[in-house]
Amino acid sequence: MDLRKGQIEPILDPNQSTYVYHLALDIGGSLAKVVYFTKDDDYFVDSEEGISNKKALEKSNGSRQYPVLNGRLNFKKFETSKINDCLEFINSMKLHFGGNQEQEIPGSQPIAVKATGGGAYKYADLFKERLGIILDKEDEMDCLVAGANFLLEVVHQEAFTYMGDQKQFVQIDQNDLYPYLLVNIGSGVGMIKVEGEGKFERVSGTSIGGGTFWGLGKLLTNCKSFDELLELSYRGNNRAVDMLVGDIYGGMDYSKIGLSSTAIASSFGKAISDNRDREDYKPEDIARSLLRMISNNIGQISYLNALRFGLKRIFFGGFFIRRHPFTMDTLSVAVNFWSKGEAKAMFLRHEGFLGAVGAFMSSDKHGLKELLANQVVQKAPSKLSFAVDKIIHGQPDGDESIECSVYAA
């Protein structure tokens, strides 16, 4: 089978005895995300027991059993400013040559790979020149919503709440998922009202997002990476920089309107009255104040939009969060405060890969169904599904994969 004909070409990972059946990209302003599926073994199993490929081919059209591919859905990220690292990863896996060194034939036709995000346009020529890959572009918002819907419907314990250092997984009823507000925090922030499969509307957004945190943090603290800035914020105390309600009211609460003495009255407000230069403030305190300022702002705007449309559930995604406890807690407290406890902030385990997963799933109509249909004699499946077995954490590079089965339903 050939991707150039809209079908999936199995791609051998030279480092393992696995085959890459498909990959997709989401290249944003800050990060490039890669999602790809690998089959760990060279046989198919059905819903009852393991069967070899030979036996699968002998199954009759009338069988009630369905073909299954066991493998992993893999997630990997790169800084967009270091896009060459992403290119080198694809090259090292030989994804663009089907994992076969012998296919490196000069002048061979480019292979199409699904991609979304602004970088799918910005780096299209680079991917074609360096790897012979044509980036088959999918709409960014379509992919975000499709990725979120897929993960919420399929992955067990994908959604969770986090407040006061307490993490609690949320059981999602597939029949009661919609409507919800999807807040995607990337370089900027997009807020999307999702009403069903393919039914959504971008209702708001803000330019004060992850890129703001990273950019201002780099200027104010000299941190060289987003993760370094986040790590620095762990050690900080925002009270050394922010003006609190107690600073204005002599250590007292403003109880009439429900503000405690520790509530932030003005982010970075102490810098106004303190007779100190920037160098006199600790970088970790600045990082903490900056993170809290941006998270509070996003949380408040998100709730106001949820209120506007009568939505009780707000899902936060995007790599700004990074499962950072303080970030999640701040977003949750903001939503809880402004909604008076009526709305909850919820987070996604694969928060940063929504667009890449959506781009991956858009390939369904181009090849994944055909892959299964051609491997097993049966009617062409009407829908492709994933049964997730478990999520694998602790990868050396901080990425992860989902053990899953792909089957026709």
TrEMBL record:
<dbReference type="InterPro" id="IPR004567">
    <property type="entry name" value="Type_II_PanK"/>
</dbReference>
<dbReference type="Pfam" id="PF03630">
    <property type="entry name" value="Fumble"/>
</dbReference>
<protein>
    <recommendedName>
        <fullName>Pantothenate kinase</fullName>
    </recommendedName>
</protein>
<dbReference type="InterPro" id="IPR043129">
    <property type="entry name" value="ATPase_NBD"/>
</dbReference>
